[in-house]
Amino acid sequence: MDNQxxxxxxDHTLLTQTxxxxxxxxxxxxGAAYGCASVYENTLAAVRAAGLRFRPAPPCRDVxxxxxxxxxxxxxxPGSHTARLLNTLQWEENDP
Length: 96
Prior knowledge:
- This protein is mainly alpha-helical.
- The chain has 5 helices and no strands.
- The two termini are about 35 Å apart.
């Protein structure tokens, strides 16, 4: 089993009531970077434990593999920053 597969199955959490925002931000960044199982749930618990409110952003897809990039290219709003960036990339001849 490779590290990415293993990390996707475990939790990554910060078990302290005295965590600073910088520590919470770092643990969330680490969890997201390593693809840990419960990044969102742990972040939500930390926010609630701190007595804070939040409004989640609308769900979106990330780009992890070339197929994701091709999907994005077919769904992006023409003229957007993302569309302009995608137009600068070198595409293989068989890509849409």
